[in-house]
Amino acid sequence: MEAVLSHLREAIERGDYAVGDKLPSEAELCRRLEVSRPVLREALRALQTMGLTASRTGKGTFVISSGPVEDPTFGDYAASDLLEVRRHVEIPVAGYAAVRRSAEDLDHLSHLLERMERETDTTAWVAMDTLFHLAVAQAARNPVFRRVIEEIRDALARQSAFLNELGGRREQSNREHRAIVEALADGSEHDAVEAMTHHLERVETTLTSIVRPATADDRTTVPTEGGQQA
């Protein structure tokens, strides 16, 4: 899927498909790229999330931007808006959860984390990822916090799937979740806040690396013989 997405994105950014152009049909793209329809559809969904294309019912997929798009949309929310809210809600929530959580909360979070660490299916993992963040909010013992996370739950799931499919975030995210649970178990408000802050920072870093890949000018130059730069 990553290869298909990269191929289509580069074609759009090169101008092979200009803004306003319609992409070839799914059947034609599957034939050209020699991939299955499910793989192609995942790549097309990622293009839409990144704001490069839009699907028009009964008409097909059209290019709407030559990119790069720096602020993709997940469901009803732009990534920047989603991250801003998460920083202002989930970081303090983790601190509250550390001092208010019950034994039942810790058991639930630990069991959920163990399942996530064993899970290999992205769809199933993403579903548990949103449940994990809901469970942390529940442990903070303020129903308003949980309601806020419920409101953005669909966007969180879409973002999680995007990051895991294109950024390989699952194992790293599991480690970050483990640090959050350990801080809650220790009852350390400071450590819980630090762990959630680190988690959200990594989410933002991975997202940025996907939507704004390094250009030749961004890469470190390597000296060659004669002092020239490669």
From TrEMBL:
<feature type="domain" description="HTH gntR-type">
    <location>
        <begin position="1"/>
        <end position="66"/>
    </location>
</feature>
<dbReference type="InterPro" id="IPR000524">
    <property type="entry name" value="Tscrpt_reg_HTH_GntR"/>
</dbReference>
<dbReference type="Pfam" id="PF07729">
    <property type="entry name" value="FCD"/>
</dbReference>
<protein>
    <submittedName>
        <fullName>GntR family transcriptional regulator</fullName>
    </submittedName>
</protein>
<keyword id="KW-0804">Transcription</keyword>
<dbReference type="GO" id="GO:0003700">
    <property type="term" value="F:DNA-binding transcription factor activity"/>
</dbReference>
<dbReference type="Pfam" id="PF00392">
    <property type="entry name" value="GntR"/>
</dbReference>
<keyword id="KW-0238">DNA-binding</keyword>
<dbReference type="InterPro" id="IPR036388">
    <property type="entry name" value="WH-like_DNA-bd_sf"/>
</dbReference>
<dbReference type="InterPro" id="IPR036390">
    <property type="entry name" value="WH_DNA-bd_sf"/>
</dbReference>
<keyword id="KW-0805">Transcription regulation</keyword>
<dbReference type="InterPro" id="IPR008920">
    <property type="entry name" value="TF_FadR/GntR_C"/>
</dbReference>
<dbReference type="InterPro" id="IPR011711">
    <property type="entry name" value="GntR_C"/>
</dbReference>
<dbReference type="GO" id="GO:0003677">
    <property type="term" value="F:DNA binding"/>
</dbReference>
